[in-house]
Structures are given as C-alpha cells and as structure tokens.
C-alpha cells in the first residue's frame, strides 16, 4: 500500500520544548482527540479515535564503516478507521 505524507516537519528543539509538544499532544488525546498540526504553510486536522495502536521504537543507525551512530526514539500512533489494536501493555520509566 503506497504511503502519502499528509504533514511533516523536522527541526532541532531542546528537550524541554519537545516535552511541551508531547504534553500538548497528550492533553489533546485525553480531552477531545482532535489534533491540529501547523508548521509554516502546512496545516492538518485529525480526529484520533478512542482505540489505536501506539508503537515505540528505539533504533541505532550506523554508517557502513560503523562511525557516527545516530540514535532515535520514535513514537507512532496509528489506526485504520473502525479498527483498534492491542499488543500488550507498555511501561515507560
């Protein structure tokens, strides 16, 4: 199935700034489930359902010679209209 990017932004931020973004998303998920994303001329509104799949992935990417590894943590919310997912309980400490 082909992927269509509806919205994308990538910028450097401090940990505190990123925590503020994540808190805002958490507040919106907990209350209305309505997310409004805006960056420059891009804008997108999404209604997030009550049940969805939450994926957490930690990765290490290295170049072919093994130098300059890049570490990442990805948080992804995903759903198909009319479906929910359950793959075990997640604990973040």
Topology at a glance:
Blueprint: H1 15-30, E1 34-39, E2 42-47, E3 53-61, E4 70-78
Antiparallel strand pairs: 1-2, 3-4
What does this structure look like?
By secondary structure, this protein is α+β, with helices and mostly antiparallel strands. The protein has a domain at 15-78. 17% of the residues lie in helices and 32% in strands. The chain has one helix at residues 15-30, and strands spanning 34-39, 42-47, 53-61, 70-78. The mean pLDDT is 87.
| Rg of Cα set | 16 Å
Spatial order of the strands forming the largest sheet: 1-2
* Helix percent band: 10-25%
| First-residue to last-residue Cα separation | 35 Å
Count of DSSP H/I helices: 1
| SS class | alpha+beta
Number of strands: 4
- What kind of sheet is the major sheet? 2 strands, antiparallel
- List the uncertain runs: none
Considering the chains and any ligands shown, give keywords for the structure:
alpha+beta, 93 residues, 4 strands, 17% helix, two-stranded antiparallel sheet, two-stranded antiparallel ribbon, 32% strand
Concise structural overview:
This protein has 93 residues and is an alpha+beta fold.
């Amino acid at each position: 199935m082909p992927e269509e990017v509806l919205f994308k932004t990538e910028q450097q931020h401090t940990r505190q700034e990123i925590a503020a973004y994540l808190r805002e998303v958490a507040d919106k998920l907990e209350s209305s489930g309505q997310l409004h994303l805006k960056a420059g001329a891009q804008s997108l509104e999404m209604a997030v359902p009550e049940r969805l799949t939450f994926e957490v992935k930690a990765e290490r990417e290295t170049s072919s010679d093994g130098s300059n590894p890049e570490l990442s943590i990805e948080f992804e919310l995903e759903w198909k209209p009319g479906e929910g997912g359950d793959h075990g309980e997640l604990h973040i400490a």
